Amino acid sequence: MLLSEMPAIAEWLEQRLRDAHNEILFENYIFAGGDWPRRVVRILCDKAAAGVEVYITLDALGSRSFPGAWAAELRAAGARLHWYHHLQTKGLEKRLRRSHRRIIVVDGEWAAVGGFAIADDWLTGVPGTVPYREMLFACRGHLAEQGRQVFFRHRPESLPSPGTAASFPSDTLWWGFGRFVEGAPPKNLAVRRRLLAAIRAAHRSIWIATPYFNPDPIVLRAVYHAVQRGVDVRLLLAGRITDHPLLRFGIQAYYQKLMRRGVHIYEYEGAFLHAKYLLVDDSWASIGSANLDFLSLWFNHELNLELRAPLAALLLHTLFLREFAQARNIDPEPWRKRPRWRRVVEWFLVRIDRWVQAHALGQRRY
After folding, report:
1. What's the rounded Cα separation, in Å, for the pair 156 and 338?
2. Is residue 105 situated within a structural domain?
3. Which of 177, 281, 288, 364 is most buried when burial is the number of CB atoms within 10 A of its CB?
4. Same domain for 200 and 141
5. What is the pLDDT of residue 355?
6. Residue 356: what are its φ and ψ, rounded to 5°?
């Protein structure tokens, strides 16, 4: 199941949580205060009080606005709340490596990943006027069991037995095959490695949706080489509605070079595009939490689901076409004539970006 509308995603998540009988595994980068998050907390508390094993993992930085009273309620109901990397000065470099992952596993039967967060902004559309454009991919079968193992690698507990959860037939029997790809820098750069391999192996098309596009030079070079091979490379990026306007300026600083190399750029107009997904040759897909920027590829802990599934590829292809139709295709000629003040801002931001990447990566080999 693939969902891209936040109201539908919120409804699906709430329903799956309400239907839980044995176990709920819930991990997210952002869980903020608000009306919808409060509703989710209430469901989790009720389920824990009813005897369902509820495990929650939240990033200490991304979910810093999670109310302390909610944490106390969850623990009083019996839920096991774990904070990933509390902020502290000791071991600062390690603590700055955040968990950007999103995964929910219910009863060992359903697993869902994507870029969604538990915050009212996602449903009200702040800073825009409509809900965010998001992505949730849900599946059953052996991927749900893999999801349990992935979840507990970020927990202090060992993997418990699956209990008495019912056994669903594997979805992959009819839609294809998939596997989780974990990025856990600095030792595990699997997300970057797999994305880079897919780009290098592309023959016909590479379509990328990401709100933040700022990869390292090696990934950029692979994209340019793909265009030289005749591959149709398209980027679907956040447009005027964004949570980081200055960061958008920095991303736009690379537009002219990208378009000069033959990359097609689209900016989504109707809402803030926060979804992260990629489709190569209409046969290989990646959906999850990782942006195509150097923070996700080199620093944050990320979780993507890699799919070789004809039905999932068809759904993503159709979604891309719909989103391209609602996006602004950046025309290289008018863009070349943009105001001088924009060029000055972009030049300045490019210098900052190069400095940050150089100092952040240090002597690490690409």
Report:
1. 52
2. yes
3. 288
4. no
5. 81
6. -65, -45
139 and 163 fall within a common domain? yes
d(CA 68, CA 120): 18
In terms of Cα–Cα distance, which of 294, 272, 354 is closest to 4? Answer: 272
Strands 232-238 and 205-209: parallel
Average pLDDT, the chain: 90
Is the entire prediction scored with pTM above 0.70? yes
Measured distance CA(75)–CA(54) in Å, rounded = 10
User: Residue 211: is the preceding peptide bond cis (ω within 30°)?
Assistant: no
Return the top range by mean pLDDT from 53-62, 93-102, 184-193: 53-62
Separation between Cα atoms, residue 148 and residue 288, nearest integer Å: 16
Which is it for strands 110-114 and 133-140: parallel, antiparallel or unpaired? antiparallel
Nearest to 237 by CA among 162, 330, 307, 354: 330
Domain stop point among 123, 151, 175: 175
* Inter-residue contact 191 to 304 (CB < 8 Å): yes
Q: What average pLDDT score do residues 342-364 get?
A: 77
Which of residues 111, 144, 175 is at a domain's end?
A: 175
Helix H or strand E segment including 112: strand 110-114
In a domain, 366, yes or no: no
Token reading at 197: 């391999």
Distance (Å, whole) CA 354 – CA 216: 10
pLDDT value of position 28: 98
Please name the helix (run of DSSP H) or strand (run of DSSP E) that holds residue 7, with its range, or none: helix 6-18
Mean pLDDT computed over 214-221: 92
- Provide the angle, in degrees to the nearest 10, between the axes of the packed helices 35-49 and 68-77: 20
Structural domain span for residue 332 = 182-361
- The type of residue at 327 is A
Residue 179 corresponds to which tokens in the numbers above? 């596997």
Q: What is the total count of domains within the chain? A: 2
Cα separation, 339 vs 272, whole angstroms:
25
CATH number at residue 158: 3.30.870.10
> Is the omega angle on the peptide bond into residue 127 within 30 degrees of 0, that is, cis?
yes
